[in-house]
Structure formats: structure tokens, C-alpha cells
Amino acid sequence: MKPSGVMGSAAGWVMAHRGSNRARNQWTVDLLNVQSGDCVLEIGCGPGLALNSCLARVDVGKVIGLDHSQTMLDQARARNAEAYRQGRLELQLGNVDGFVVANGGFEKIYSVNVVQFLPDPATTFQKLYSHLKPNGVAATTYLPRNKNPSRVDALEMAKNIAGHMEAAGFKNVRVEELPLRPFPAVCVLGER
């Protein structure tokens, strides 16, 4: 999904205002334990909700939002205008495949509602691992979007993601659940 035009703007508005989406974004940042000096990357930053939560915690580090939709980047820039003007927030158009790390890596990398759209999760998690500094943490949060999704679906997907992360070299991989109705959001975290 690559939101654009009027419909893309509307989709961004919905993402920014839906309570469960706001909760997933905040929860993910909380799980990462983002600190003041961290360098943080969000894959698929959308309208910038989680970026806003990171920026509230990072005052001397750097927060980078990556998205393949200019519409989403425009909304993220507007939502976080002051941090963008101050240079604490950088926004980049693109995806993980073409992303080049110029600063030596990140303490935290995360995505929310992105992993289910990845064409090659194994390769993506290998790239994320290579972009993390030693002891860095990566997290991916999602809700299953199949027909009639359930907690079982969410946990089965978590098992699959954890396998990709472990194969990429992540250690201490763990699964967390955010109780939502009718089924939980799931976050899979791993350390370098």
C-alpha cells in the first residue's frame, strides 16, 4: 500500500486518529525504551505518530522516518514540524532495500503495521540487523489482516517473524502482546 493523493491523505488521517493505531504506536516506542541520545529509525513511518513519541524522548540523538509514500512523509513533517526545523527529525522517501546508513547505525529500529507488507521478510531482517549498533534493539508491531483474524493468527505470525529475526542473528527475541479487541496487537523484539 502506497498512500497518495486525496485518498492517501484520508488514509493518513485515519491512521493518525484511530485509537487502536495510536495505542500500537505508543506501545511500540514504550517497549523499545527509547532514550535521550538514541539514534532511532522508523520503517514505514506513516503520518508520524510514533516519530512524535520518539521525539518527546530524544533530545540529543536523531530520529529518522522512512516511508515510500510522499503523502505520509508530508503528514509526518507537519505533525513534527518543530523537530524537523530543529534538525532532530529527518524524513526519507524510500524503503529498507535502498536505505543507506550514514551515521554508523541505530540504537533502535522499529516498524508498526509494516511487516505484513514485506515481500521478503528474511532479507529485511538481515538488513535491519546490519543497521543496528551493538546491543541495539529492533521491534516490529502488527495486527494480522487476514480474513477473520484471531489471536492464534497473531501468534503464528509472531513465531514466523521471530524465526526470521533469529536467522538474521538477533538474540533475546521475545514476543509481547497488547490486549485489543477482538484480538491483540503483537510486537516481536530482538537485540543485536
Description:
The protein is globular and about 45 Å long. It has a seven-stranded mixed sheet, with helices on both faces. The chain has one domain: Vaccinia Virus protein VP39 (Rossmann fold, 3-Layer(aba) Sandwich). The chain has 192 residues and is an alpha/beta fold. The mean pLDDT is 88. The protein contains seven helices and seven strands. The chain starts with a helix and ends with a strand. The longest helix has 18 residues, at 151-168. Helices cover 41% and strands 26% of the residues.
Uncertain runs with pLDDT below 50, 5 residues or more?
A: none
- Across the major sheet, the strand order is 3-2-1-4-5-7-6
Radius of gyration: 15 Å
The oligomerization state is: single chain
Please tell me the overall pLDDT: 88
| Estimated share of beta-strand residues | 25-35%
Q: How large is the count of helical segments? A: 7
Number of domains: 1
Query: Helix/strand/pairing class, anyone?
Result: alpha/beta
Helical coverage, percent range:
40-55%
